[in-house]
Amino acid sequence: MALPSSGAISLSEIASQYGGTAPHSLKDYYRNGTEGVPDTASTQNIPTSGAIGLKDFYGSSESSNRDIRVWMSYLFNENGFGVTSQSSTAAPSSISASANAVAWQPVFRAGQGYITSASITISQNEDTSAYNNNVILYGGTSDSTVTNVVAAWNAGSSGDDGGARSYSIAWTNAGLISSITYTGGSYNTGIIVWATDNVSSANSAGYTWFGFKVTNPPSFGKGARVLGGTFYSSSSVPQPS
Question: What are the domain boundaries of the chain?
Answer without folding.
Answer: 11-61, 64-240
